[in-house]
Amino acid sequence: MKIKFSKMQGSGNDFVVINSLTQNVRISADMVRHIADRRLGVGCDQLLFIQAPIKSETDFDLDFYNHDGSKAEQCGNGARCAAQYVFKKKLTGNRLIKMQTKASLVHLRLNDDKSVTANMGNPIFDPKKVPFDAPKESVLYKIDLDGTIADIAVVSMGNPHAIITVDNIDTAEVAKIGRLMQKHPRFPNRVNVNFMQLVNRKKIKLRVFERGVGETPACGTGSCAAVVAGVRQQLIDSRVEVSQPGGILEVEWYGANNPVKVTGPVEHVYDGIFNYEE
Predict the structure, then answer these.
(1) Residue 204: enclosing H or E segment and its boundaries?
(2) Domain limits at 50?
(3) Which helix (H) or strand (E) holds 231?
(4) Is 128 a member of any domain?
């Protein structure tokens, strides 16, 4: 089966984009793993699958697949790339685009400076909805990581995030702690682990260990979750520059009952055809 795709990236977070509007494609976990393989396939952090909307108030339906073939609920950078894709491919002429993901309806705006803004909706703090095993909601939780007690913030942006504040992002044990956190029984659906270093009230540095992927150059929902956690702890302002290995995103959140918005560049890298044999 020959599959047309586009390679896109947002702040170094790279994606293979496939749409079922102009071709007949069925996605399987095996197909995703083949395409996402950086040695034997195209290579990507996630695969984005764009479909015709089920609901009339939505422009497109959007599914996210992790590098390991598992399905993700949400992805900020992926949604931003998908919005640029449908506009570039003339699947819509609108610069304001609504995409239904597994988690929520995401409102996207293509800006004049070629950046894309995603309104990711309100953050979720209820442990049962994250999900996270805790008796009640708190700004910070203590968690046992192989005998070491750590303070973490827990936020869902449609997908679960744990945020750890560190003194130095460069020396943080991202892979070690990330793996411990992901298999921790208090996170029944696993978790994206964010390591946040405070630079000043308007800037943070961030590294993210993602579910089903590992460490990535950037993470849109991780940036949102980290800023939300920082604002709740009164460590940072409501509009913050998030510096990640792959680039810079701007995140804004004005407190309870407000949505989180993330803005940053996206790039169409190339188009191609992948020959997949089942």
Answers:
(1) strand 203-210
(2) 2-121+265-275
(3) helix 220-232
(4) no
Question: 81 and 169 share a domain?
Answer: no
Report the pLDDT value the prediction gives residue 134, as an integer from 0 to 100. 98
How many domains would you assign to the chain? 2
Q: Both 6 and 63 in a single domain?
A: yes
Asked whether residue 182 falls in the same domain as residue 202, the answer is yes
Dihedrals φ, ψ of 229, to 5°? -65, -40
**pTM exceeding 0.90:** yes
Of these residues, 44, 81, 219, 224, which one is catalytic?
219
Marked catalytic residue, from 44, 75, 81, 224: 75
Three-state secondary-structure class, residue 127: coil
Q: What angle do CA 226, 82, 91 make, to 5 degrees?
A: 155
Residue 130 is assigned to a structural domain of this protein = no
Q: Is 75 a catalytic residue?
A: yes
- Cα separation, 179 vs 215, in Å, equals 10
Say whether 44 is catalytic.
Answer: no
For the segment 111-150, what is each residue's pLDDT rounded down to a tens digit?
999 999 999 999 999 999 999 999 999 999 999 999 999 9
